[in-house]
Amino acid sequence: FHRGYYIRARAVDHCVRDFLLKTQSHPRTQIVSLGAGFDSLYFRLKDIGLLCHTVVYEVDFPNVTCQKAALIRRTKELSALVGDTGREGLGVVTFSGEDYKLLGADLSELSELERALEEAGLDKDIPTLFVAEVVLTYMENHRSDAVIRWAAERFSRVCFLLYEQMHPEDAFGRVMQQHFSQMNSTLHSLAQYPDCEAQQRRFFEEGWTECSVMDMNEFFTCCTPEDEQKRVQALEPFDEYEEWHLKCSHYFVLTASKGMEPSWTPLLPNATVPRDGPLGTAGSIPAAVCPTRSGISGLRRYGHRSVLIKPNVILTTGGFGEEDGRHCRMRNFHVLIKQAGCWKAGSVRKESPDKRWDERLYHTVSCLSNSLALVVGGRTSPSSPGLGMLWLKFPETCSALEPEDITLELVSVQPAAEPAALRWRHSTTEVTFKGEKYLFLYGGRSALEPVLGDWCFLHTQDLSCAAIPVEGPRPEGRHSHSACSWKGGALIAGGLGAAEQPLGSVFFLRELEHGFQWQAVETHPPLIPRYSHTAHVHDGKLLLVGGVWFHSSSVPGITVVDLITGLCMDYTINVEHLEWPLMLHNHSSVFLPNEKELLLIGGGGNCFSFGTHLNPEPVSLSLGNILASH
């Protein structure tokens, strides 16, 4: 929430200040804030001395402006900024100061708006900036288009600043739309102007000669100074990267101008980031709700882990989700058992009188035998230290043919390598060196370090940390990446780097006679940077599933990387047969190689202020066709 509202205020402040700077040689300028509500823009600008020759006009419904006027009058700091001339207005002018006019008018009635502004003294021949922060979208499109067209036609030197939502059709967009519909506040612009390109065309068609637009991920990366980015990132404990980046990909800032000399271009980036082109896809994969017996509950969660502990038996642990009618860190384990082509929920009984689960998120679970799995790391809150290691013991005799209660014993582990495990959003991958099995613990983050780039080889017998030489170029530190075993080594793909930017690199840690070596895997076309995805290897193909990327024209589906040729192909996931939005981040996935079936379990999260969405049921993807075509 804090970052989401910060970036909105930052974008508006950036553009408004740029307008004031570029027009400071003019004797008079003016700003018109449409649907201003209780915005404090005027008071902030006045307080720091930026309104020496600028009048600010604010317009909103009369009942809103009356409340705001009363608030200004009874707050001495605000009254002092307006000055002694601040007085109750007449007619549509609710409050009037020397450089501040508060007008009560309905924006959707253009003639009423124009009359109110003329009555308040608006001059159509001096440089004018219109500001519309999430306001025009609540109007019917023909009315909002009319306002945009009127501003371009009636003012000789004019600029427009627009901040609104976009991308209504993906999972986050559907949750966003549902939220506003429930509030009886339909977002009218989304259907006709769903993305940056459509909004830019809109302004050109309505008579504007210059127009730039970018989503908020691009604005934060390109138009926010690096020291300011670091300041914001360090302000408070933070671990909601997916939600932050998804929110930013669903809002844009647009600036347009006409008659300005020189041109008004506040969105010129201070960093070069390649713009999205259309994403070429090799096809689509239909998604279907897993065939189940009597439904499956208990898997509405994210930040969990799911692992195949035996053929047709999947254990899911941890995460944050819905339990006992409330949202919380998950205490209960969950088991899925496949019988006669259908999945059903088994029951799990924990035996751990001396050991609590610790309700962890973003941990890893590695199945080391048919009766033993190792839990490594995870967290409770992002301000708490990472959690250590834990054995999960289960009976060798539990069978998918004779379902019964599965008993899990939690056993504390305190090896010498324990400090290396105090992290989350990391990976643990089984590798082989000189015939011995190790868990390769890599990356992640901790309460003190937002990104880790170190590693450790855990011997699977005693969990000691082995000193095995590693040569080659060290990969950039990362968390929320994927890791898979392959040819005795480990494949690391994607992740979020130190600057909170998604990574598109793939590395193979391959075994040598005297140790391991990092090798970069070149892909073509280059892999689109992503994080919070899952991954599997099958028959020399790396499968990357879901995640979050900055390629705002689409959401990640399945990417297949041929590990021999480097060919990289993207497939969309067809969700038309699902009755709910499918959010593919913070999920888990299990690949069943015999069936060439991929199970997607859980996923989702908090959708800014629009509510929490958790995928309600496991989803099945049949990958036989795409694997056969490679």
UniProtKB/TrEMBL annotation:
UniProt KW S-adenosyl-L-methionine keyword: yes
Enzyme class, first EC level, given as a word: transferase
Keywords attached to this entry: Methyltransferase, S-adenosyl-L-methionine, Transferase, tRNA processing
GO molecular function, one term: tRNA methyltransferase activity
SUPFAM superfamilies, per database record: Galactose oxidase, central domain, S-adenosyl-L-methionine-dependent methyltransferases
Entry keyword Methyltransferase: yes
One biological process term in Gene Ontology: tRNA methylation
EC number(s) stated in the UniProt entry for this protein: 2.1.1.290, 2.3.1.231
Pathway membership, UniProt: tRNA modification; wybutosine-tRNA(Phe) biosynthesis
Signal sequence range: none
InterPro entries: Gal_Oxase/kelch_b-propeller (IPR011043), Kelch-typ_b-propeller (IPR015915), Ppm1/Ppm2/Tcmp (IPR007213), SAM-dependent_MTases_sf (IPR029063)
Catalytic reaction list: 7-[(3S)-3-amino-3-carboxypropyl]wyosine(37) in tRNA(Phe) + S-adenosyl-L-methionine = 7-[(3S)-(3-amino-3-methoxycarbonyl)propyl]wyosine(37) in tRNA(Phe) + S-adenosyl-L-homocysteine; 7-[(3S)-(3-amino-3-methoxycarbonyl)propyl]wyosine(37) in tRNA(Phe) + S-adenosyl-L-methionine + CO2 = wybutosine(37) in tRNA(Phe) + S-adenosyl-L-homocysteine + 2 H(+)
Family under the similarity heading: Belongs to the methyltransferase superfamily. LCMT family.
PANTHER family recorded: TRNA WYBUTOSINE-SYNTHESIZING PROTEIN 4
Protein name from the UniProt record: tRNA wybutosine-synthesizing protein 4
Species: Nycticryphes semicollaris
